[in-house]
Amino acid sequence: MIVSFEVNGEQVTARMTHPGSLLDMLRDDLGLPGSKSACEQGECGSCSVILDGELVCSCLVMAADVEGSSIITVEGVAPRDALHPVQDALLDAGAVQCGFCTPGIVVAAVDLFANNPSPSVSEIKEALAGNICRCTGYGAILRALEGVARGDDS
Amino acid sequence: MTARTVRRTTTHEGGVGQSPARPDGVPKLRGEFEYAQDLKADEMLWAATVRSPHARARIVSIDIAPALAVGGVHACLTADDVPGRAHFGLEHPDQPVLAGDRVNYWGEPVAIVAAEDARTARTAASLVEVVYEPLAPLTDPELADRKDEVFRRLRIRRGDQAARGPVVVEGYYEVGMQDQAPLGTEAGLAIPDGEGGVDLFATSQFVHVDQEQVVASLGLRPGQVRAHPTGIGGAFGAREDVNLHIHLCMLALHTGRPVKMAYHRSESFTGHVHRHPAWLRYRHEADLDGRLVRVEARVVLDGGAYASTTSAVLANACYFVVGPYRCESVAVDGVGARTNNPPCGAMRGFGAVQVCFAHETQMDRLAQALGMDPLLLRELNALERGDPMPTTGQVIETPLPTREVIRSLQAMPLPDDPLGLDPGGLPGGSGLTTEQREVKRGVGYAFGIKNLGFSEGFDDYSQARVRLTAHGAVVETAAIEVGQGLVTVLAQIARSALGITSVEVVHVDTSKIDSAGSTSASRQTQLSGGATLEAATRLRERVLSHFAGDDLDESGVWRGEELIARWPEIGDQEWVETATFRHPPTTAPDENGQGVIHADFAVAGHRAVVDVDVELGLVKVIRIDTVQDVGFAINPSSVRGQIEGGILQGVGLAIMEELVLADGVILNPTFTDYLLPTILDAPDVEALLIEQEGSWGPFGAKGVGEPPTISSTAAVVAAIRAASGKELNRVPVRPQDIALP
Predict the structure, then answer these.
(1) What is the CATH classification number for the domain harbouring B533?
(2) Exposure pattern of B52-88 as b/e (b: 16+ CB <10 Å)?
(3) Which of B7, B84, B138, B241 has its CA 20 to 30 A from that of B688?
(4) Over the stretch B124-170, which tens digit does the pLDDT of each residue have?
């Protein structure tokens, strides 16, 4: 099966031997392991990507369904030599521990601020409700994103 | 906050007491950090595990031919193929590498398969034909006790056993089975070295014991197996035991190819040990002034099918049965039962969590029986430095600011905000099921004590090596970074000790350095931090004495105002120091459970504020305030991270997290059914750190990872009790426990 689509601004073609999820295709066939596999059922958000402008769990999207689509993964939220303001804020707030949920948190937060540059606390919580973090207790994540919402310089 | 202990005066950029950004932060934020799940090698095969569908059965036959017949399958191995010791285990090697003639728990590994890709491996694994004769599983730990199916019994008797008090409170408590649920599942890669040996890169908290167990079961010489620290997505105790490590090495050596395995989430729930469920009977006796006169307890933990660390968890539960309180007459009988339930072992808090729920409920009930303020009762009985442990008699020689923790927590401001108008903030959450008039607010307190470092005479040490290069300093260690921030802390310690900023922490494999011990028991900051401090201090002294200098910094060695050796020149020579750090020795318990059992202690307290929908039994934890004894906060931001994360795991145990079993089978091994707290469940947290000099950790630091999890559960339940008026003798508290009469 051959699927052609755009990922992080580049046109790619993936040849898959088995039907599988977008997550598997990104990780195994396209060399983009930043999206993490932690629950395989859309509960934890570790595999979050932006698909044609929509935040999705890539483990729940069939690879074949992204033909002609445009996808942004954690590897593509910022240019190679820079961090997205969300990444900067999470780093400064101490919001990264084991980091396994972090790519999903980054993508979900980037999606949030793309659609709503100054979200309220409850809007931030609602936007991140699909991302499970087992290490931080979410406090540092929330403080970081509140700072981004206020436009703090990090 | 009280005075800090700082052994050196250097306040260096990125040194101790600051919160520099973690070195792995940017790679993790960019998705570039390499976890065990992400490892790859040329010619790599994928492995899968055949697991028992029965909690107890005799294996009649295993036919691997159907699996081998699948195209792309390279190997299918069973118990007969284990080249060396057939069993493994952290404390007692009692668990089969692969089940031979019987299986003893649901999900026990029976065979392993390696194939060209993961899908083929799993397909082939499903085709292995195992004929079982199912047997009735033993799932009741009390029955196991009566049948003498136990891993350990521990009997503690201290003081006058005839002592009696006029005020008596009895209670019975249960704690459900919690899972660590680290976001990264078990994964690893084994690469054969072509000479009969193997390199293992797998999720771990303690690579040196993994290596020992692999060596034994593969029948190799120690030098033939190198276990490498690798990127890990959380641990919380789940990675102390071997799971896929021996399997991967067997398949790699058998096929001569690199072999990779990554558990799926549901497999992860059976592939690692869990927090022990507990059944606890208590009797507290006090005099009329509220002084504890006697505490009796019976502690039953279900260890499941194999030993893992049940002996040590049981011991900890028994030793901390009274909590951070003085008592001169104590009797404890503990049992770690062997059943056909899933094996239980280490999880953050390690036995102290279970008993804390019980002893704190007892203290609240005792206060009620005495007509006394529950915090005053605790203060009156507070265990402090210089006191004997109520259970073991060990005199506490490091600071234990229990009274200050109690007073400071009480003094923290309580929120006076009324219930919010946002229905999403009510206990029913975004389901909008809660009516505001059904909501009651409750406040509850709890306090806990935890040992730091390994206990009972274990030779607990860590080795670290510090090396100067032309670019700065490198700290070499095998201490596992699970996310807690050890890589940052070790670099900070080296910076402060050396006086230079450019420090890198490098993980090296088991052949290149001695053990750092386990990343557990809140011990790495103290143990590996201690080793790093010692190595770095010696190195600095050697450099300065060699050059007759008196200071070292980024430019080189200074004497007074004169730069006498430039940095690249210093780094060109071989400057390296290796240090092994041991904590004060401990002893095994005597026949009454007495002895110098523990190396150090920390105390913490939590105050929970909860809103409860008493009609529907729903709980929203609004806020948790905490005070924690940390010795010295080497990295305040990381300490806060441990506190907030540990508290939320305690909240999880209080109101939602439980592996539900039926006849030994886990009914909810998915993230859909095993509920974990989300950002909507997370309370606001305010933390106060108490810093006191006197611990043996570097710069007086104490371990901080576990105390946040000890008493947060008990505090939440106390608050739910205050709101609902229900007894609530079991965690997690379920909606029906609150809503039904």
Answers:
(1) 3.30.365.10
(2) bebbbbebeebebeebeebeebbbbbbbebbebebbb
(3) B7
(4) 999 999 999 999 999 999 999 999 999 999 999 999 999 999 999 99
